[in-house]
Design a protein that fits this description.
Elements lengths: L6 H22 L4 H6 L12 H8 L5 H6 L16 H6 L17 H10 L1 H16 L7
Helix pairs in contact: 3-7
Protein name: Reverse transcriptase zinc-binding domain-containing protein
Length: 142
């Protein structure tokens, strides 16, 4: 005669299997890579990002690089001549100088995103910068 596994133990085991499978899908997936840079581990706890922070992390917003990618614009350039992506606006664009954040080194890009979103001051700058870009979308691209 077999002994039955207690319900709580079975639940815990299934939950562990679920999280391992979910983490594997998240690590090896083709979508959500920009968010994966920031959120490396799957979790049931919600992330309370504003709309502007989501636009910044995903790159889905009024950015010339995105508009050009989807053939909604002839150029991926910002009005200053550089590629108009979120990192450019946050770190080097003269049009968003008031909200500038230190540029990440290439090897620390993922960690940079995490630190920016963990820092309340940086988050305020990102939110204000994205609002400015949205309000001035037509003047922010070539």
């Amino acid at each position: 005669m077999k002994a039955l596994i207690p319900r709580c133990e079975l639940k815990q085991h299934l939950q562990e299997l679920f999280f391992k499978k979910w983490q594997n899908l998240w690590d090896n997936g083709n979508t959500g890579r920009s968010v994966h840079k920031v959120l490396k581990t799957v979790n049931l706890k919600p992330v309370f990002w504003t709309r502007e922070e989501i636009l910044f992390v995903t790159g889905y917003g009024p950015f010339p690089s995105l508009l050009n990618r989807f053939h909604l614009s002839d150029s991926d350039s910002c009005a200053c001549g550089e590629v108009g992506d979120p990192i450019h606006y946050a770190t080097s664009c003269p049009l968003t100088l008031s909200w500038r954040i230190r540029k990440p080194s290439t090897s620390l890009g993922s960690l940079w995103y995490q630190r920016v979103l963990d820092n309340p001051n940086s988050r305020k700058r990102i939110i204000s910068m994205i609002k400015f870009i949205i309000d001035n979308e037509n003047t922010m691209r070539l």
